[in-house]
Amino acid sequence: MLKKKLRDQKGFTLIEIIAVLVILGILAAVAIPKYFDMQGQARQKAIEGALGALQSSASQDYAKGLLNAASGYSATNGPAANGGVNLGDFAGTWSLGPTVTVTVTSGPAGWNSFTTPSPTTTKQFIMHD
């Protein structure tokens, strides 16, 4: 009777458990580097979005300066050109001139510095009258 109970027990064999662990190890070896690569790409895309928002803000400030030039506000002496602008989790500055340079100066909390390899944090474009 005792031998019959031992034969009826069900479970995994040691070889099956080792096979599953090997498969999980292979998946982890492939998935973890891909995860970190996607994380870096996501950060770069977030910075590119912030640069686009900064470019839009610079264009708006430039247009406001052109419209209000008679009241002492100039396109090269706008508030954001002299200081900075807050873009949600990002902050940035720009310099106006024939070629406008916008720069993202800081990112969300937890981004001690921008990722390595360093993403592009500056964008240049020409402002048209």
Question: Could you characterize the architecture of this molecule?
Answer:
The protein has 129 residues and is α+β, with helices and mostly antiparallel strands. It has one domain (14-126). Helices cover 50% and strands 17% of the residues. It is built from 3 helices and 4 strands. It has helices at residues 2-7, 14-67, 79-82, and strands spanning 85-87, 90-95, 99-106, 122-126. It has a 4-stranded antiparallel beta sheet. The longest helix is centred in the first third of the chain and has 54 residues, at 14-67. It is rod-shaped, with a radius of gyration of 28 Å. The model has no long low-confidence stretch (mean pLDDT 75).
Number of DSSP helical runs: 3
Biggest sheet: strand arrangement: 1-2-3-4
Report the mean per-residue pLDDT as an integer. Answer: 75
Which series of helices and strands comes N to C? HHHEEEE
Percent in helix: 40-55%
List the helices and strands and how they pair.
Elements: H1 2-7, H2 14-67, H3 79-82, E1 85-87, E2 90-95, E3 99-106, E4 122-126
Antiparallel strand pairs: 1-2, 2-3, 3-4
Keywords:
129 residues; 17% strand; alpha+beta
Summary?
The chain is α+β, with helices and mostly antiparallel strands. It is built from three helices and four strands; from the N terminus they run H-H-H-E-E-E-E.
